[in-house]
Fold this protein.
Amino acid sequence: MTFEYIRQSLFFFRRHLGTIARIQLPFIIGLNLLGLVLEASVEADSNQMHTGTGLLMLLNLTLLPLYWGATLLFLQSAVDDRPLSAFQAVAVSLKYWRRLLITYLLSGFAITLGLMLLVVPGIYVGVRLVFADYICVLEDKKPVASLRQSWDESEAYFWLLLKGLLIIFGGLFLIEAPLLYLAEAAGFSSPAVEATLSVIFDLLGTLVTIYGFRIYSLMRSESTPAAPPN
């Protein structure tokens, strides 16, 4: 069923691309433009470059829960047939900003620790915690509770999640890498071209979130008791 769920994720992405783009692109484009400005302004000073890069990473970490939380809220609203507008989704996501940020940090720490243990444990931990963001926002749970629940509930869906995520990540990489190579080989490579490709593939990366949401929805439907017959 992996390819069927990927197909459904692609269909959902195409159908709702307009709203997803309106949620994410202002943040993604803004961060990439800021990166270009910083790169141009500190090009001759390596110390300033390190400082600028650190500040940009901090800003990205600060904004990520805002537009990613908005994306999760929109996905659920679309499934419920009460789709939020981009502005509404971002506005509502402010409520979850702090707990989603903490969830990201705790999850990232656990995955990094696992990656330090010969990579495979990090991949395993990352897949087992993939539901944490959805639980945090859509079930209004606190960070530690979200991580614990994701770990408990994702076990039965581990291989389905792993195969789908690897296919999507691998597919995006196999498209992006040749484009970067061709741009460089043709003499078109520049920070602006790289930033443009980064914006496009950051937006396409939403497929990963949509696939995770599809499996999360499957898990929820299978764990909900059937209504008794009338």
About this structure: The mean pLDDT is 89. The two ends are 32 Å apart (CA to CA). Residues 6 and 167 are 9 Å apart (CA to CA).
